[in-house]
Amino acid sequence: MDPALTQEQDEIARALRDALAKQAGPDEVRVAAASSLGYDVELWKRLAEQLGLAGLALPERHGGTGLGRVELALACEEAGRVLLSSPLLASSVLAAGAITACGTEEQRDALLPALASGAQTAALVLPGTPALALGLAPDPRTAPLPGDVPSGGGRAGGVQAKPVPSAEDGSWSLYGEAEYALDGARADLLVVAAHTGGFPRSRTVLFVVPADTPGVHRERSAGIDQTRSVGRVELRDVPAQPLGDPTVDVGPALTRLGREAAIAVAAEAVGAAAQALARTVEYVQVRQQFGRAIGSFQAVKHRLADVYVAVETARSAMLYAAWAGPDQPVPALLALAHALTAQRVAAAEAIQLHGGIAITWEHDAHLYFKRAAADELLFGPPHLLRARAAELAGVLAGGEPR
């Protein structure tokens, strides 16, 4: 492994950083997040057309740029730096990844080009939080000690699917709801993970549902982080087509997709943590106390040095995980755990060292603090991610490396 980034990778990150610095400042992010869709549609289309952001890691034959996992991680890092409210994670990573992994060649040809161009967006509808549904962490309610957590949800709850006997086109009917669908309230296309087969032949199958299909009801949840759109999706006898072979359980594919998502979320968290640290360092150099800048106090230097070490460690872990890929689950899980921890520490220190001004709800430090809290609820918490990694590595008693 060569840890140094290539010139092309540096240029990708720099180009995206420059574009977002001009078009996605804190004021623009607040306005976009508070809009009806929750993101700036025109900005997303420009980023897709000019920089290929929407299809960065998708194959060229499907309209993508054809780059790799490291380039996508660098793009997510820059998006996280400004807390960009966009379909990048939900559509370009999760939904597009599910279609690529589970869809037939005809389905990939039909669905991916519109996502790669930014003309349409998609959302992956999962039971429960992404951390549980994608097998990133054990469910503390049912598995207080780390254990196997099948992706796609349990035998009850979530969305249930059953074939329609009279349908000549092989349609299925979906019924149920999902509470934590990233971009579920605003996407054009829904990729729904549904349970079918009953108890004896229990399996999870993915289905493709246009968002305007009768029987689909969606609403945006009032989460603590407006920059990360989470929606509640209800399906009431909705006709749908299976994505790929409906006789095959997609649990293993969702688990692998979860590791891809872990790398992307880790990259976003690293970018957010680095920006929170940079803004705090800038502030402590101008804030005066006892006739001198508080940044000159040794205690403040030590606190910021600890944050710097946490951020750089998380970034190294994230880049290694991106290089290793989802076939090695431990690096992905540990990278996400390190990144979420660094993001929380950086955001908390930003509020502390900004003093009384950062207590106000309108201060930008709160954007980073709320992103850190929301990410841990959706994709963590870090101690469960580490427990899952330890189990997979065979560190815990009774575990075997896999």
TrEMBL record:
Residues in Acyl-CoA dehydrogenase/oxidase N-terminal domain copies: 6-118
Statement: the UniProt record of this protein carries the keyword Transport: no
Name of the protein in question: Acyl-CoA dehydrogenase family protein
Short name of one Pfam family: Acyl-CoA_dh_1
GO molecular function, one term: flavin adenine dinucleotide binding
Cofactor(s) demanded: FAD
Keywords on record: FAD, Flavoprotein, Oxidoreductase
Superkingdom, natural source: Bacteria
TM segment ranges: none
Taxonomic source organism: Streptacidiphilus fuscans
Domain Acyl-CoA dehydrogenase/oxidase C-terminal: 262-389
Sequence similarity: Belongs to the acyl-CoA dehydrogenase family.
